[in-house]
Amino acid sequence: MIDQSHANAELARRDLRHIWHPCTQMHDHQHVPMVPIVRGEGAWLIDAGGRRYLDGISSWWTNLFGHANPRIAAALAEQARTLEHVIFAGFTHPVAIELAERLVALTPQGLDKVFFADNGSAAIEVALKMSFHYWLNQGHGGKTRFIALTGSYHGETLGALSVSDVALYRKTYAPLLLTPMLAPSPDAYEGEPGESPEHVAMRRLAAMRVLLEGHAHETCAVIVEPLVQCAGGMRMHHAAFLTGLRALCDQYNVHLIADEIAVGFGRTGTLFACEQAHVAPDFMCLSKGLTGGTLPLSAVLTTQQVYDAFYAEYNAGKAFLHSHSYTGNPLACRAALETLNIFRDEPVLERNRTLATHLARRLAPLRDHPNVADLRQHGMIAAVELVADKASRRTFPSEERRGLRVYLHGLGRGALLRPLGNVIYFMPPYVVSEGEIDHLVDVAIEGITHAVA
After folding, report:
1. pLDDT by residue (tens digit) across 86-101?
2. How far is it, in rounded angstroms, from Cα 117 to Cα 136?
3. Using alpha carbons only, how large is the chain's radius of gyration in Å?
4. Do 442 and 407 reside in the same domain of the chain?
5. Strand partners for 115
6. Residue 436 in contact with residue 56, Cβ under 8 Å?
7. Which residues form the signal peptide (predicted)?
8. Annotated binding-site members
9. Could you tell me if 57 and 200 lie in one domain?
10. Model confidence over 206-217: pLDDT tens digits?
11. For residue range 143-187, what is the model confidence (pLDDT) as tens digits?
12. Parallel, antiparallel, or unpaired for β 145-149 and 181-183?
């Protein structure tokens, strides 16, 4: 039997022999430890040697109610004994039907149709194709382009990457991608000195109007991440931008796609971020927290008007012939239903507001740190912008990898913090306690002190 002190090293050795990990320069693992996790418990991950790590990023923003959540686990076990999967073309099943009904009831009014897919990137692909195909079916085949925001990120498949603007992910594959039109982000961090987030939003809406005036005739949709541009550095904007953008899309006859993959299901303080702007998009993309972080599943919600544009005799050639083998998977749908049941049965959003207030209070002293240019928060998402010089906002050279130092310090102190470049962020599971938030913040502050030394 392998003793615990050796267990992690042995699993890491076996892993690195064959596995190519996502979003990773594998050469880094010559000096960055591979951490084998064998079980989870609430907000904690536990490695093969019994060491515990507080999951400060909800395992890539997916986990809502803790690892190995007993309610979701029990629902999955029951479903596995009943129906694990069935083809979703020509067949259906009760779990998918109920999940679609529940999602329609919870999302903004008018989103009455649900198309299931496998993951967030797949949901974006569906929305992009569906928007283009809608206009084609309506006789507007000249609408072939999309408008995205600077600093946006929507996924890694080619369509999703096409409407993303993070060079780290996009640059290499640019020759393979569609070319979107980019509108300036309403990111409040980019505001002029003394300018309010709402004023930044209004200024950026004016720029969007100019873009639409010149290009609406060739534009299928505008795609945005409501309130928080997550992978772009947790950049945040005022809800007024979404309100104004909905009006512009209506005026210029283009679709609005809301990518709520990361911000949905309570992350920003409301169940969906669009609620804070009182808008309903034409397409809403959901994933990540949809299953509470247990299984891959995504959903694209859209309107009856969009659905009707595809509804015709087969020979009309208007059908949306997009599919995934695991569309509507019963196990994933059952996990999603139990996730929604937890929202229904427990005061999740109220508790989140209390936790978010505590997180804000604990982070507040960092506003005066000489290497912190910005401290921002929307609900259960908070971010700290590290810079080399506070006055000029001069950034650290990327090759210095200051964020990596914070990550490594966190591992040593039993906390999973995985910065985005030099942005240290917090997006913990909703089952985290105030004491655990204290631990995350304390470790982050220590890590920042170490990283900027």
Report:
1. 999 999 999 999 999 9
2. 22
3. 22
4. yes
5. 300
6. no
7. none
8. 60, 120-121, 153, 259, 288, 323-325, 418
9. no
10. 999 999 999 999
11. 999 999 999 999 999 999 999 999 999 999 999 999 999 999 999
12. parallel
The pTM assigned to this predicted structure is 0.97
Residue with tokens 């890491």: 12
Q: What is the mean pLDDT of the chain?
A: 97
pLDDT tens by residue, 19-53:
999 999 999 999 999 999 999 999 999 999 999 99
Range of the structural domain that residue 304 is part of? 74-345
> Residue 348 and residue 341: Cα distance in Å, rounded?
11
Q: Are 148 and 183 in contact (CB under 8 A)?
A: yes
**Residues in binding site for pyridoxal 5'-phosphate:** 120-121, 259, 324-325
HSE-CB for 253 with a 13 A CA cutoff? 10
pLDDT digits (tens, 9 = 90+) for 323-367: 999 999 999 999 999 999 999 999 999 999 999 999 999 999 999
Place of tokens 């220590």: 446
Measured CA angle at 150 (ends 60, 208), to 5 deg: 130
Q: Classify burial at 275, counting beta carbons within 10 Å of its beta carbon; exposed 0-12, middle 13-18, buried 19 or more.
A: middle
DSSP codes of every residue in 172-206: GGGGGS---EEEPP--GGGSPTT--HHHHHHHHHH
Instruction: State the amino acid at position 150 in one-letter form.
Output: T
Number of domains in the chain: 2
What is the predicted pLDDT for the residue at 5?
Answer: 64
Q: How far is it, in rounded angstroms, from Cα 385 to Cα 440? A: 16
- Same domain? For 340 and 393 the reply is no
Annotated binding site for substrate: 60, 153, 288, 323, 418
**What is the Cα–Cα distance from 301 to 199, expressed in whole angstroms?**
31
